[in-house]
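FIELD: query
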Amino acid sequence: MSVLFKEMTAGATVYALVKGEELKYLEGSVVSIGQQRSELPQMPAGQMPNPMQMPTIKHVVDVTYQLDGKNYTDAVDVTASVFPTDKPGSVTMVSTDKDAVVRELHATLKTSENYLTEAEKNVPKQKQRVEDCKALIAQLDTVYMERQQTEQRFSKIEEAQKEQGDKLDKILELLSKK
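FIELD: result
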């Protein structure tokens, strides 16, 4: 069972998974754990609380921890052994247990694999959609159609010039052998 943040002491190890542009695993340490306190959720400025829905009071501790030589402080639920934060500059999961980081990595891997599988299924559909759009635009927009035809003519000319250049290179090669 994981240790709760409220039970940790200064110097204890924390484990972090930074989920920015690249994934990064860090080990840090607890600098200090504050006293348990109650915290009301913050209401947007000018908004009155609904008397029918009383805001839930959260019991938190202030956890100051060090990652990569920098200190950060977050208010953490007293029942938490893992919490998310963006204080290090990217979404970061901080945990009292390395296994939580491993579980998060497995979940992230599965999410990324599912995303890639879905994207690979959609690529042919989207390529066909692009071709269909171009064909319909060319059919309906004469300026676009003329530009497409001009580009096709230039492509054919470039291709023909390349073929002639290749043939000329072969002729010169044969002549130089004699």
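FIELD: remark
The longest strand covers residues 23-33.
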